[in-house]
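Forgive a beginner's question, but might I ask you for the amino acids of a protein and the tokens describing how it folds?
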Amino acid sequence: MDWLERCVPNVEQLLGTYWRKEPVLLRPQEPPLEVLTLSDVDALLDAGLLRVPYVGLYTAQGSIADERFCPTRVITGNPAHGYVDAAAVRRLIDEERATLQLRYVDQWHPPVRALTGSVAERLGRLVEAFFFLSRPGRRGPVHRDDGDLLAIQLSGAKHWQVYAGPADGDWAPVREENPGAPLLDTVLEAGEVLYVPRGFAHTATAVGDASSAHLTVVVREAGAEHLRTALLTGIVDGLTLPGRPLDDDALLRTAADLLDHLGAQLDAVTPDDVIGRARPRAYSNRQTV
């Protein structure tokens, strides 16, 4: 199954017209709402195996300390930390209007992994997924993300405002205090998908009478650090050198062999080669909220 076709009604139009240029509201005919339902989330919480950092809770004031919803367990007589208590999570959502975030869902939930894996294969990039559950009225901060976003509204509704992209390549995925006028101001209903280009500032508010649940599929892109790492890794492939040359002459020969190898590799490598190596490893170093 081509999961990108399930998320986007016209993939060619998205990539040719909107990709990295402007946000757009999409209405796919068969949105993948079944990959993570509210019943699934309840079952995952109740199973008792979810752990931080795969789970986080936060309010308008910031992140909620893990200790408030991850009481210490005792396993074979030893303390075990970080396991999520479902009752504590639900209490914080109800009483403090906390937003539940399930992080890197692609790493541990098979249906979501199938979706992100298919999109990654189609686009040739690293793809990850995050789930958000928010009570009506809960508004997130204006911020920029280090990836192109496909926000799939699973249930409820969310009011999104998307602002302009970065002015140059030296931006960072952080909160944005003065984003200007929104480029797109829309309410995302269940079954709709919002595309937000990489780096475009945005915020979202849960609206209506029911909680909002959405899955954000993040398509990562390589940055300068990923390119440097990919280049250095690539040009040393196949290089075998003595670990401790015995004398000065041997050390000089080893250094010469190293330079010869690097020169030959650099002559053969192309920018496309470097990008191709970097994209599948373009993990974000942004701290979770």
Summary: The domain at 3-219 is CATH 2.60.120.650 (Jelly Rolls). The chain has eight helices and 13 strands.
